[in-house]
Amino acid sequence: MSRTDRAGRFLRDNSLTLAFGAAFLLTLVGQAAAGLAEVNNELVAADLQPVGVAGYLTGSDFAVDVTENWQSEYLQFFLYIFGTVWLLQRGSPESKSLDRPGTESDREQKVGAHATADSPSWARAAGLRRTLYSRSLGTVMALFFVGSWFAQSITGTASFNAGRLRDLQAPFTWWDYVLSADFWNRTLQNWQSELLAVASMAILSVYLRQRGSPESKPVGAAHTSTGVEG
Asked: pTM for the full model?
C-alpha cells in the first residue's frame, strides 16, 4: 500500500475525530479573538491599558471561559455514561434494550473466559485490572470533569478578583469564591444546558430520525424500538 493510500485510509478511519478536533481548534481561536476584543474594550472604557494576545491567552479571563465550558461538557458525558447503565428510555437509540438494565453478564460484555481473540488484554484479565478497565471510560470522564471544574474555580477566582481590584475592592479567597454567587451562576447555567440537551436527545430520538446516523434509529423503525441504531 502506498503512502498516499495509507494517508487516505487514516483520514477516512479517523475522520470523525479529526473533523471535530479541527472544528474545536478553529472555535477556540475564534473565542480567543472575540474574548480579547471584549476584554480590551472593557479596559479602554475604564481608562486602563489593553492587553496583548499573549497576555490574554495566559490570563485568567480566557482560562476561566474555557474551563467553564469544558467542565460542563465532561459532566454531561460522565453522567450519561454512568446513567445509561441503569436508566432506560423506551423507544430511544440512546438507551439500552428495556430487558438489559445494569452491568450485564460477562458473556454479554465479552470479558474473562468469554473474551475473544481480539478483545483488549485487560478484558481477558481477572481481578482489579478487569474492574478498572470495565469502568475506565466513565472514570476518565469523571476525572476530566473534576479537574476542569477545579481549574475553573482557580481561574475564576483570579478573574473575579481582577475585577474587584479594578473597582478598589478587597479580593476573595479561593474558598470565598467557590461559595459565591458568581461561581455558581457560571456553573449552573452550563449544567442546566447540558442536562437539557441530553434529555432532549433521549426523547426526540424516539420519534425523529436522521438517516445513516448511529445516533438515530433506522428511518423505518417503530417508535417503540429501543436500543436500535441506524
From this structure: 0.85
Q: Return all residues near 27 (Cβ < 8 A) that are at least 6 apart.
A: none
Q: How far apart are CA 174 and CA 102, in angstroms?
A: 39
- Between CA 29 and CA 56 the distance in angstroms is 12
Q: How is residue 115 annotated by DSSP?
A: -
| Domain boundaries along the sequence of the chain | 1-58, 68-100+137-230
All three cell numbers of 11: 483520514
| Cell numbers at 229, concatenated | 441504531
29-81 pLDDT, tens digit each: 999 999 999 989 988 887 888 889 999 998 888 999 999 999 999 999 999 99
Q: How far apart are the two ends of the chain, measured CA to CA in Å?
A: 32
Rounded distance between C-alpha atoms, residue 219 and residue 217, angstroms: 6
